[in-house]
Amino acid sequence: QSPPSQRAFRERKERHVKDLENRVQQLEQAQQEALSENERLKRDLQKISTENEILKATTSMVAASAGPPH
Fold first, then answer.
1. DSSP per-residue string spanning 12-52
2. pTM given for the model
3. Cα–Cα distance between 33 and 39 in angstroms, integer?
4. Contacts of 9 (CB under 8 A, 6+ apart)
5. What letter would DSSP give residue 54?
């Protein structure tokens, strides 16, 4: 190969490596954002589940204190 074609190959290779490095960085960022959102959603689910259990208990207590329907 001639020196200019070797240089062109090397430049294409370097560009490709840079593109891949950028893509890895983007994917790592997206993964971190997804993990953060997943943790937030887990906390939200736990909070809502707790609220749901409280409402169920409150509803059953209210229903029990109201006595049988007339």
1. HHHHHHHHHHHHHHHHHHHHHHHHHHHHHHHHHHHHHHHHH
2. 0.67
3. 10
4. 1
5. H
The string of pLDDT tens digits covering residues 34-61 is 999 999 999 999 999 999 999 999 998 8
Examine the pLDDT at 32 and tell me if it is beyond 90: yes
Q: What is the Cα–Cα distance from 45 to 52, expressed in whole angstroms?
A: 10
- Give the chain's radius of gyration (CA, Å): 30
Per-residue tokens: 22: 């950028």
